[in-house]
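SEQUENCE-TO-STRUCTURE ENTRY
===========================

Subject: a protein chain together with a token-level encoding of how that chain folds.

Sequence line: the amino acid chain in single-letter code, read from start to end.

Question of interest: how does this chain fold, as expressed in backbone structure tokens?
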Amino acid sequence: MANSNQDTSTDLPKQRKWPRRLAILLVGLGLFVYFLPSLVVLSPIRQRLVNWALADLNGQAQVESISVGWFSPVQIRGIELMDVEGQTVAKIPRVTTSKRLIDFLRSDNLGRIDIVNPTLNLELTKDGSNLESILATYLQTPAADSSQSLPQLELSITDGTLLMAPPQGDTVHQFSAIQASVKIGSTESPIQCLVSLQTPVTDSEVGKLSIDCVVDPGKSGLTVSTINAKL
């Protein structure tokens, strides 16, 4: 009897330890999941993630920093897009999403993405441009009998700058104060865009150009068969 009572008393503390260990394990796992987005975007993991996401890019992309959390909007700073020769094609100081990271997991609607102060160095060629060369894989036109469904998304561009160089030309044309709103995946058409910009007229005067564009009006999928534009 004495030995039996002694064994029971020594086993009791061990039995009481497992709930505490389980609680510690669950708390640790919860903290890991909570901070996982922040851990993923740390360098050098951040650049590897960018390379994986843009694997079809015919060039390179670099990102200075990414701020992300499950319950906060995503913010990306210092985006630079380069061609295969390492020449800078586009720079974007800041990109911010209207939705939180957890919202992207619960809905196909990607909300609004704000692009602030982008600069595009566009070099025109006989076959297109340097931007088209970089995005060649993404710009492949679907077959005539097929359509491409797009997610719901709104792009907002504020105070953009376009530097455009014609083929075999020494003059670079600059277009500034670019404001654009692009709606993707709406019920009216796959792509709608409204763009306004300033264009130089003389050395002391500038003009203003507005473009209202609708792609494949009345269709749910993108076929790029019809484009209506107003200048």
